[in-house]
Amino acid sequence: MAESQAGAGKPPVMRPRPLSPHLQIYGWKITMAASITHRITGVGLGIGSLLLTGWLLALADGPESYAALQEFLGSWFGKLVLLGFTWSLMYHLCNGLRHLFWDVGYGFDVATANRTAGAAFAGSVLLTIIAWVLAYMYRGAV
Amino acid sequence: MSAFKTPIGRVRGRGSAKDGTQTFWHQRLTALALVPLAVLFIGFMIALTGDDYATAVSMMRSPVVSVLMLMFLLIGFYHMSIGLAHVVEDYVHWELGKIGLIVAIKLGCLGLALACVLSVIKLSFGSAA
Fold first, then answer.
1. Considering the domain boundaries, does residue A108 fall inside one?
2. Measured between CB atoms, does B72 come within 8 Å of chain A?
3. Among B26, B39, B49, B110, which would you mutate to test the A interface (most chain A Cβ atoms within 10 Å of its Cβ)?
4. pLDDT digits 0-9 by tens, A95-126
5. Which side of chain B, N or C, has fewer Cβ within a 10 Å radius?
6. DSSP alpha helices (H): ranges in A25-75?
7. What is the pLDDT of residues A22-75, one digit of tens each?
8. Residue B90 contacts by C-beta under 8 Å, 6 or more apart in sequence?
């Protein structure tokens, strides 16, 4: 009150008041994106595990079932699912390594956390591309 | 009513605190094991791409492949059951729905794991085609 009376005429200079932390107040950071993506890919892998179970059941069931599943996986939709599965696994693997390093006490400072979050995103995309290129090379096609 | 209970009375019958971090620890332990197992799994799947049924079956007959696959599946489904239950615990606040979903997740993961294990064992013993 005393300050505002001294500087009469001018608007009172106010120090920015601390805001109560809330999800809607925080600016979007790459570490937050990395964290929620870890969860989303984890749930995605849960759905993907149905595909892996189906693949093993079909393989154990016989050539007809296996051929039917291979046909689905060869379709554009099957390939899209498989691509999502591959990237989810790569991302969950890369970001999981970050978690394991945190668990033993490394990589907590902001600069490192930001850098490793970016590395997890970039690395997972790169590993997905490598896996698919290798798969197509084995296939002998393309 | 619980306000009239002594602290020891409130915790009695709720289990030992000694295993309070068991799920947390198992999640980390399975994560660590899954790093090399997932890499091997991806490599195996890449190697199988485009192969016909007979080749895929003959590869699954290898004891090394079978054992590594079983480890990946069992540890993977256990890791998955912990993770999915954790997500439900975080976002589902209706107690009955939460318990129902967690039971469904645990039983679902067990069912899927058993289906996978049965398939791998069947392939390993070579009784398929």
1. yes
2. no
3. B49
4. 999 999 999 999 999 999 999 999 999 999 99
5. N
6. 30-61, 63-74
7. 766 677 899 999 999 999 999 999 999 999 999 999 999 999 999 999 999 999
8. none
- CA-nearest residue to A66 within chain B is B53
Q: Report CB contact under 8 Å: A138, B83.
A: no
Number of separate domains in chain A = 1
Question: Does A17 map to a domain?
Answer: no
Residues of A in contact with B39 (CB under 8 A): 93
Burial A8-40, CB ≥16 within 10 A → b, else e: eeeeeeeeeeeeeeeeeeeeeeeeeebeebbbe
Least Cα distance to B77 among A50, A58, A59, A83 occurs for A50
ipTM: 0.85
CB nearest B116 (choices: A39, A56, A61):
A56
Q: What is the pLDDT of residue B128?
A: 46
Q: What is the CATH number of domain B22-124?
A: 1.20.1300.10
Percent of chain B with pLDDT over 90: 76
